[in-house]
Amino acid sequence: MPILIAMGNWTEISEFILMSFSSLPTEIQSLLFLTFLTIYLVTLMGNSLIILVTLADPMLHSPMYFFLRNLSFLEIGFNLVIVPKMLGTLLAQDTTISFLGCATQMYFFFFFGVAECFLLATMAYDRYVAICSPLHYAVIMNQRTRAKLAAASWFPGFPVATVQTTWLFSFPFCGTNKVNHFFCDSPPVLKLVCADTALFEIYAIVGTILVVMIPCLLIFCSYTRIAAAILKIPSAKGKHKAFSTCSSHLLVVSLFYISSSLTYFRPKSNNSPESKKLLSLSYTVVTPMLNPIIYSLRNSEVKNALSRTFHNVLALRNCIP
């Protein structure tokens, strides 16, 4: 049962109820549970495999795969924050989440989300250097530089998540404690606040613009230079090879930015909660699963490394008596 503590003329909420997909029939929820569980396991296995292969195979120790490994870490974290609780609400109807638990979930959701925005921009810069300055690529993207770029990608998540979460959960909550979502996201939790949130909404919109547009601008500039460099390549084969190294990243960027931007540019928009849930599913559940698939199927080096790793494991297993 939800715990509500009377405080004067308003009620302090000590826990929330995640509505998730409770409006759907039980049979549909069971089907969703099996679907999301499968996606969850594929996501964890796929991204873990990318991490292990890029660490184990010497051919994948280039900067590109270093950043891909960071992306896989982010996707695993993203999933661990959101999906287990969602599966619990679908299977056991465990819809309650404590006040602290809700704040913690939101904090890490923003942390991983912001870090991914900047990491995708860093990966675009890596492709720019590789294509536009191939002879100096190893020197420019040395081990120290790539470590600094990775740290710079992860760091913005801390202040953004801290300010956004602390500010939102400092507001008084009154009335219902039902969050019409499958996780503690900012827009549905904001609707439960019984105070003037105009300043927070301005901050949320400005923050979203900065977090989304700064990396987008960096990505756009990088790919503008990349496109100009590719057009100068005389052979069609050379152009195709250069473009193929960027196509996976472009697809991942498109999937992530379009869906997340549609959700967060208007925190209290009049879009239906169900449409927002679908948008949220696309970048919290589906995209993390697709990333390792996209990079594996569209990248011959990763496919070859996976094949070598698989054969090495089989050979090692055959050697064991």
Question: How would you characterize the overall build of this protein?
Answer:
The chain is mostly helical. The chain contains 11 helices and 5 strands; from the N terminus they run βββααβααααβααααα. β1 (4-7) and β2 (10-13) form a beta hairpin. The longest helix has 34 residues, at 99-132. Residues 1-9 have low confidence and may be disordered.
Characteristic key phrases:
two-stranded antiparallel ribbon; 321 residues; 5% strand; 5 strands; mainly alpha; disordered N terminus
Number of helices: 11
| Proportion of residues in extended strands | 5-15%
Gap between N and C termini: 57 Å
Strand order of the largest sheet: 4-3-5
Mean pLDDT: 84
Order of helices and strands: EEEHHEHHHHEHHHHH
Overall strand count: 5
Instruction: Indicate the percent of residues in helices.
Output: over 70%
Structural class: mainly alpha
Structural Rg? 22 Å
Low-confidence stretches: 1-9
How does the overall form come out from the CA principal axes?
globular
Largest sheet: 3 strands, mixed
Provide a short characterization of the protein structure.
The protein is mostly helical and 321 residues long. It has helices at residues 26-56, 63-91, 99-132, 137-140, 143-154, 157-168, 186-190, 198-231, 236-264, 273-297, 300-319; strands at 4-7, 10-13, 15-18, 96-98, 178-179.
What layout of secondary structure does this protein have?
Layout: E1 4-7, E2 10-13, E3 15-18, H1 26-56, H2 63-91, E4 96-98, H3 99-132, H4 137-140, H5 143-154, H6 157-168, E5 178-179, H7 186-190, H8 198-231, H9 236-264, H10 273-297, H11 300-319
Parallel strand pairs: 3-5
Antiparallel strand pairs: 1-2, 3-4
Helix pairs in contact: 1-2, 1-10, 1-11, 2-3, 2-10, 3-5, 3-6, 3-8, 3-9, 8-9, 9-10
